[in-house]
Specification:
Layout (H helix, E strand, L loop, with lengths): L2 H19 L16 H9 L3 H8 L7
Length: 64
């Protein structure tokens, strides 16, 4: 391992240790993508009512 890579590794471990000491956690970004069928989306495209669109957009996969 080269010197700059070793320095970067040591720095990352030192930061991790300090975070753990002070009970700081970094959340992982959420990258879930829920794709609905074309039939579900057709109602959203033709709707002019923004409240109707909001109701559909907030429906989770568990609600189906």
């Amino acid at each position: 391992m080269s010197a700059p890579a070793m320095l970067q590794s040591d720095l990352n471990f030192a930061i991790f240790k300090e975070f753990k000491t002070h009970e700081i956690e970094m959340p992982f970004p959420q990258r879930d993508l829920h794709i609905r069928s074309a039939l579900d989306l057709s109602g959203l495209v033709t709707s002019n009512n923004s409240a109707d669109v909001g109701d559909h957009a907030e429906t989770s996969s568990a609600d189906r």
